[in-house]
């Protein structure tokens, strides 16, 4: 098709479209500002709740990364992949998981937390600088990795119940 044969938009319509787009753009720019103001007015607890005290994301990825930082400092071996693999097998990533049916539970010492640690093991292999709460994700991971390092060389070498 020749350029002369193409449909041409009248100049007036082009001006109207430009004004509509400009008006829409202003509204689009204003909406995030309104949303941000409302979010900050709602309270800042949502922004602080999304990170740990050490500044890592308050989720499985952040807990593992924070544990690895502590482990490096304490020279406890282990990798992200090894820790993640064992957490998924043991608790599916639930830091409040508790096993009430295995032999440990039958003895009155159920396995708890992300890496299903029993209380005596947690106390023995607790790593200084972490919480004494077995359900604390970072404390649980770090103590379990400390135990696995002593018993198996590293959490990376654990491929089943330990």
What does this structure look like?
The structure is a single chain. By secondary structure, the protein is an all-alpha fold. The chain folds into 2 domains: 3-49; 60-157, Lysozyme (Orthogonal Bundle), CATH 1.10.530. Helix content is 56%, strand content 2%. It contains 7 helices and 2 strands; from the N terminus they run H-H-H-H-E-H-E-H-H. It has a two-stranded antiparallel ribbon with strand order 1-2. The longest helix has 32 residues, at 11-42. The radius of gyration is 27 Å and the shape is globular. 27% of the residues are buried. Residues 14-47 have low confidence and may be disordered.
Describe the structure concisely.
This protein is mainly α and about 160 residues long. The chain has 7 helices and 2 strands; from the N terminus they run ααααβαβαα.
Number of helices: 7
CATH architecture level-2 label of the largest domain: Orthogonal Bundle
Average pLDDT: 81
How many discrete domains?
2
- Estimate percent helicity: 55-70%
Q: Report the radius of gyration as a whole number of Å.
A: 27 Å
What attributes characterize this protein structure?
globular, 2% strand, two-stranded antiparallel ribbon, 2 strands, mainly alpha, 162 residues, Lysozyme
Describe the secondary structure blueprint for this structure.
Blueprint: H1 11-42, H2 45-49, H3 60-74, H4 80-91, E1 98-99, H5 103-106, E2 111-112, H6 119-125, H7 137-152
